[in-house]
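Q: Two folds, back to back.
A: First:
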Amino acid sequence: MPPPRSTIPPSEKVTLPPGQETSDPPERSTILPGRSSIPPEEDPDYDPSSPSFPDDAVERSLERMTSTFGELGRLVGSTLGLPNLEDGGNTTQTHAPGAPPGIEHITEQWTPPEPGTIRIRVMDVCKEKVETHWVDDLDDFLSRPQPEWVKLRWVDVDGLHAYVVSKLQRAYGFHTLAAEDVLHVPQRPRVDAYTDHLFIVARMFDWRRDQLVTEQISVFVKQGLVVSFQEHDEDVWNPIRDRLLQYEASKLRLGDASYLAYALLDATVDHCFPILERYGEMLDHLEDTALAPEAPDVLQEVHAVKRNLTILRKAVWPMREVIAELGREDQLLVSPDTRTYLRDVYQHCVQIIDIIETFRELASSLTDLSLSMASKRMNEVMKLLTIISTVFIPITFLAGVYGMNFVLLPELHWKYGYIFFWVFCGLETAGLLFWFRRKGWLRIKA
């Protein structure tokens, strides 16, 4: 099992006042809220006839309430993309209240990660060639000078660890607050401009194992250098790597660091289109299912789609601000040529938001449609039961009349009375059914 990528800082020890260091700790009260410590026999307000609840029943009720609130919290956390603290080793580092800012106070920065938990890929780029190599020894890599032929270096880190982030932060001079935000995920998408570098935070979406997966990506942009951090080892940047390796005349080789950062953001944003296309197909299928004659309950599926669309919207909406901020003319690290391409990414963000809003409205309409169809099917069933009841009302009336215990009922001694009763029941049932059919009430649609 790989070690946890980060840990939660331990709680601080509470200092007791003088004179209480060696005293025994006070016993914790076992009295539940609203319960009195006075014995029932000595309590003046005690009423033996009033209902009481045993202690084990109250404790079970409290446990069920705690479990319910815990499930609700985990649901909200998964919806908002918050870290799951019960995920055995995959927790992310949280910022303790009152802790000093920056990455220097994180103790894990001095402990190297175990082999295989963090992957670092470096691509050295110039117009004539591109070299790719994996970094096994980070200290050795940072101690070697960069080759003179390299015009652009891309350092891609898969996985988050304070040791790796701290080493790269000190080697390349990134701001300590930006390095801290790399570890404290999730962050709202944004761009921070520093003296000689930019720090970009975005969210990457992918469809893996039939579910939506989201992770934070952090990108540092410096003159001739791009450093990217991802939470996992799967991304949507393989087309960017292929363009760097296969096409000598690619603008990725000819451009600067800001153009590579644009290409990474463009691939991240454009990957939302196939995801939205999949959700569009899901909504079409759910709509056909909801309109089927014997449709199952699709409310849970519609709610899951709507929840994921909300997660997408919360991530893409601030991306517009990120792209707009990068396209400003006062961003000296962004070339004018890159600003032109960033406008295209901005339009893609606007288009994605429009599609998401359309799908959200469609999901809301599907919810109303599903409820309406369920109500319609219930009304059809009630109509059928009403027709059956109406058919048997005259028969029940006759059976009640001739079932009375009066002595003088002439028809009871009639020779053909029994046969006449069944003939009347048959004619009455056939007549009512014929009349209901002419009215159109027997065309039942389940």
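A: Second:
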Amino acid sequence: MKTREQIALDLARMCSADRQPVLSSDDLLTLVDESQRGYLWEPETAYQVDDIVFPATRSGRIFVCVLAGISGATEPSWTTNPYKGKLQTDGTCEWADDGSAWTERYDVKRAAWRGWLLKAQRCTEFADSKDESVDIKMNQLYENCLKTAERYRPYNIY
């Protein structure tokens, strides 16, 4: 599984972060954090209904919180016979097996979509510029950012 920083590097390439309008490393890390599909389970942590966790000891499964509470001091054994919907008690929380885990913890395509939308938004902050050698049309850059964002638009299958 790639780290947060490795995903940010992938995202920088996907979003041409070094080209105008520029995305800073802080922008990239924020986009990565917002694209996180779930969290690694942690002991004695408050969880809310619908929080998603990956077991710290990888099991190939993900779990969704169905009863809010505080996780236990030690990681649960999760399920020895996994199937979607199976319940697991953990401290005062209760988790339901939500199926097979994604390969990656972060949805980099969703982050790229949001990155290109952020670049488009930044285009609206600047006016067109022209001198003897350069003619910059911010509207064209804006349209290009939106068009590129469409390549990464997430879709849901129900």
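Q: And?
A: The two ends are 26 Å apart (CA to CA).
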